[in-house]
Amino acid sequence: MIRRRRFLQIMAAAAALPVRAGAGARWQGQALGADCDVLLAGPGAEAALAGIPPLLERVEAAFSLYRESELTRLNSTGQLEPSALFAEMLPLCDRLHGLTDGAFDPSVQPVWQALRDGRDPVAARAMVGWSRVSRRDGGVQLAPGQALTFNGVAQGFASDLVRDHLARQGFDRALVNMGEYAALGGPFRLGIADPVAGELAEWHLRGTAMALSAPGATLIGGAPHIQHPQGRAPLWSSVAVEADSAALADGLSTALVFLDRAAIADLKSRLQGLHRVALVDRAGNLTSL
Prior knowledge:
The chain is built from ten helices and 15 strands. The protein is of the alpha+beta class and 289 residues long. GO terms for molecular function: metal ion binding; transferase activity.
């Protein structure tokens, strides 16, 4: 079995732009717990790629759960005067929460912590509720017992930041992978693979972004690592989303694992910037919308 990140990287590399002297360059690293990779074509690529680590340091300093960050300070103290980058994340989460009828909810962190620690998550679910996160006078305040995670959107958010950085430098052909994919130009061939069923389809990105979520790919305390705020079980083995932005694709792929086909089809019909959705059921059947 090929894990989904590795499979996507294999498929991307197989059809990516050539990296040769004077024509382009490649950067590899880590951020937010994910392996990162950027392929960039054009003169001056090396210099442009050198700007990526400082940008990712800002992302880690804002959203990481694995080191001292604005997010860990908010979770430990219950309040924060956010940076501009952190503040930019909040309306994005508002939008995703509304689009998915609450299935996308960054306040599920206490549930994840309970599962990780082997505790019953029922009590933790009483703490969940994005609407209980208060924002006034530029500050953020959590309700008692609350904690946030942006793991369902931060990697896509980072991919968009890097893609925008490269576009501002004048580049028009790049494939950015900060855990989710964002393309400048194209086409770039990416594979869709389910953790159980394996390779099922190929998509070609042209200036768009792609994210894939598989709840059962990682288990926390025997439960799927993607958790619904009210404890609903995932309906899909995998969901892949192509959208204009990697943050939108990332957040939607996280939440759509809990929505039925009719609700997803309705969302796609009315949401500009959402181009394609692939749904894989538990039997390995693929449905494309």
